[in-house]
Amino acid sequence: MKAQLTRPELDALPSYLPSPIPLDSSGAPQAPDAARLALNELPFGPLPGVVEAVVAAAGDTNRYPDMAAVALRNALAHHHGVTSDRIVTGFGSVYLLELLLKAVCEPGQEFVFPWRSYEAYPVAAVGGHVRPVQVPCTDDFRQDLDAMSAAITADTRVVLICNPNNPTSTAVTRAELTKFIDSVPESVLVVLDEAYGDFVTDPDVPDGLVEYGHRRNVVVLRTMSKAWGLAGVRLGWLAAAPEVATAMRKLLAPFATSTFAEAAALAALEQEKEARRRVDFVTAERARMYPVLKALVPRTPVSHANFFWLPMAEPAAFAAHCKAGGVLIRDFPEAARVTVGTAAENDRFLEVAATAGTLLSAGTD
Ligand SMILES: Cc1ncc(COP(=O)(O)O)c(C=O)c1O
Prior knowledge:
The chain is an alpha/beta fold. Helix 6 (about 175-185) links the parallel strand 5 (about 155-160) and strand 6. It contains 12 helices and 12 strands. Pyridoxal-5'-phosphate (PLP) binds next to helix 3.
């Protein structure tokens, strides 16, 4: 028998995530006109000033960027009313989650997170050499905070709440989250992944940074990939207690915030009003689409994010039907997920969905 050269845990992970955008063998999109509603991106182009800032930064590509990303950390700190010693930036918030696990966990300790939730969490657990503990969501696709609290053991170092949750679109309320965070031992870090927090309109759903960010064992994970329209430049950040942020910065990959990411993010932050206007458009479209989708797929939960979770018996067949109709969405074993796009893209999706017939019938779970 051949000796195993890599860690056995990797065998259980998918070896690649197929691109939801069909590509030809050269990597070019096969359906460039399709509505791209698969990855929860914003459908608009970059915010005003971002392209110019990136072009201007291109003149410096022979130089390394600022290792500590001081200008961006200061801007984020100013923008969010926290001190910059609490902020860590890097190429995407998932990278920062894995880094956090490495900074706080001894190998084999536990990382508790909800499931179904973001697919990158189990991968971060393997990368961080921790034991993943997945706590099933309730039948109505919500994170089960009592079960998550009960899952914490003496070996748990990090517990994560995704609010709103990707891919199920549900959110945890202030009352639930406060009770949960109060129940977590002070030695366990609570990570609030708020990648979709900008799309929350329900006043009962808290802003974790504002309401819990001052607590020593709370870490708030944010990204500029969604509401800020910067998915392509890769810029995530987190706010944590200064001692946690300092420990993480020691482990950061060198120059983890690129010249382009810093320039683009600084320019985007200047455009808060326009960013808010775009997010308001998305949430208005979400409100328009919900009753139509609820009539087609009755178990669709109320969405607090920029996508819908559509539980059905045949998600893969439904995704293929949508693709044939010029709309790219994501399918999971038990549901399809569709991003809110432009008004025209949403109309196209609703039209295609309306012709899906029995593909939309309820699953058995
Ligand atoms: C819940 C959640 N967290 C984090 C991310 C990743 O953000 P980033 O692009 O900063 O890695 C995503 C992206 O889809 C997400 O759904």
